[in-house]
Amino acid sequence: MARHQVFAMKFAKVYPLYIKKAEAKNRTKKEVDQVICWLTGYDQAGLKQQIEQENDFETFFAQAPAMNPNRSLIKGVVCGVRIEEIKDPLMKKLRYLDKLIDELAKGKTMEKILRTKEESDAKGKREKGK
After folding, report:
1. How far apart are alpha carbons 69 and 99 in whole angstroms?
2. Domain around 41
3. What DSSP state is assigned to residue 82?
4. What is the pTM of this model?
5. How many CA atoms lie within 13 A of 14 on its CB side?
């Protein structure tokens, strides 16, 4: 099976676009970094190293210290595709990141974006009440 071209894109080339998208909606680089680190397990130094090494997305995700177990709570459509239906594990990770950046730019609270336990518990209670 042919690999998607996006996997070969350098994370360092896309990262400034994530920041630009967030800042255009009055969000910050710090929030972009927080979202990326939440998803991947990188700390600030590790994220900086990935950018300096100009690793591609495939390497970026392969070297991620620990993908967040709550990433499965990220649902919805990105680039016209429902995240829950993506079969390729690497593409799914990439779309998780895209979705988080989209939510940041749309003004969602960090608690909702980061799928905190409190947010998950509140959502579960709302759904039971239906």
Report:
1. 16
2. 5-128
3. E
4. 0.85
5. 16
